[in-house]
């Protein structure tokens, strides 16, 4: 693939300061890391820190309860702030993701965190909630596009949009000229989605992607025992690229055929390796073995 940059998410560096995370991401051989606005630093100070480590700013993240009408205006204000930062940073995409882990209670009386990885049709949002979600998301897309930034929807286990059926339903409602796709391969796999066919179906809309791998043995056990999100995580559901069951060669072939260019962001939310640096190095080495 041409014009592709490989980033690494800082989420693996639990408890470390930003400077250490960025230094080790650079050491592991990545092009950049996600960046967004901060209450403590100006945009230029953030960009200077990235430049100090030889890293580019990669697409940031806006997670919100888009289905909640009471939060609509606050979400739009956050979108304006994110878009303004991305424009200054020269980043053309923003991940937009649903919340819901503890804030959304399903009709069965369970939180989405409790049904992670084993969601049923009975756990889905109502038609009214989908409509509000799409309305707010479209408004976010308008705001970010005005700044030259594409809003890319990002699926996540534990949120109100986890399964293929839920993603498809949302994309029947949003404006494809305003909302694009920024999927997470690991969360797709964990949520029961066949990743390669999904990427093939949405290839034209994918503008950036989080690449993550999932341990199939942990997934199988957790589904059988109906674990919640935290139990899955504690048991090691996340693994380094190439050590799980996501078919990355197939995914990358689909992206290349579609003419994809942009950011691929490696993430291992929780590593079982001795350090975040080693985790990042393992995943980077795997991508290099694929010529990426």
Task: Break the fold down into its secondary structure elements and pairings.
Layout lengths: L3 E5 L9 H10 L4 E3 L8 H10 L3 E3 L1 E5 L7 H18 L3 E6 L28 H20 L3 E5 L9 H10 L5 E3 L3 H6 L4 H7 L7 E3 L1 E2 L1 H10 L3 H7 L2 E2 L8 H10 L4 E5 L9 H14 L3
Parallel strand pairs: 1-11, 2-3, 4-5, 5-6, 6-7, 8-11
Antiparallel strand pairs: 9-10
Please give a handful of descriptors for the protein shown.
292 residues; alpha/beta; TIM Barrel; four-stranded parallel sheet; three-stranded parallel sheet; 11 helices; 11 strands; 42% helix
Explain how this protein is built.
By secondary structure, the protein is of the alpha/beta class. The chain has one domain: Divalent-metal-dependent TIM barrel enzymes (TIM Barrel). The chain has helices spanning 18-27, 43-52, 72-89, 127-146, 164-173, 185-190, 195-201, 216-225, 229-235, 248-257, 276-289, and strands at residues 4-8, 32-34, 56-58, 60-64, 93-98, 150-154, 179-181, 209-211, 213-214, 238-239, 262-266. Helix 4 (127-146) crosses helix 5 (164-173). It is globular and about 50 Å long. The mean pLDDT is 97.
């Amino acid at each position: 693939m041409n014009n592709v940059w490989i980033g690494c998410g800082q989420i693996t560096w639990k408890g470390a300061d930003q400077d250490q995370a960025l230094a080790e991401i650079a050491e592991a051989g990545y092009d950049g890391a996600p960046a967004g606005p901060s209450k403590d630093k100006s945009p230029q100070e953030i960009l200077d820190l990235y430049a100090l480590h030889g890293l580019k700013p990669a697409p940031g993240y806006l997670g919100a309860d888009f289905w909640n009408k009471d939060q609509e205006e606050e979400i739009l204000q956050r979108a304006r702030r994110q878009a303004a930062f991305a424009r200054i940073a020269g980043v053309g995409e923003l991940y937009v993701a649903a919340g819901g882990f503890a804030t959304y209670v399903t009709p069965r009386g369970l939180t989405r965190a409790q049904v992670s990885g084993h969601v049923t049709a009975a756990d889905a949002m109502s038609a009214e909630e989908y409509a509000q979600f799409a309305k707010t998301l479209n408004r976010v897309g308008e705001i970010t596009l005005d700044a030259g930034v594409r809003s890319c929807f990002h699926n996540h286990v534990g949120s109100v949009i986890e399964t293929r059926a839920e993603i498809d339903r949302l994309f029947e409602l949003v404006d494809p000229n305003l909302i694009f796709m920024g999927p997470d391969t690991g969360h797709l796999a964990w949520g029961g989605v066949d990743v390669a066919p999904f990427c093939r179906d949405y290839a034209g809309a994918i503008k950036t992607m989080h690449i993550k791998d999932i341990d199939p043995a942990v997934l199988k056990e957790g589904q059988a025992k109906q674990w919640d999100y935290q139990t899955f995580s504690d048991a090691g559901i996340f693994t380094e690229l190439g050590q799980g069951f996501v078919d990355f060669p197939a995914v990358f072939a689909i992206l290349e055929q579609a003419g994809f260019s942009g950011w691929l962001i490696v993430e291992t939310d929780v590593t079982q390796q001795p350090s975040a640096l080693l985790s990042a190095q393992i995943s980077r080495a795997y991508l290099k073995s694929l010529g990426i």
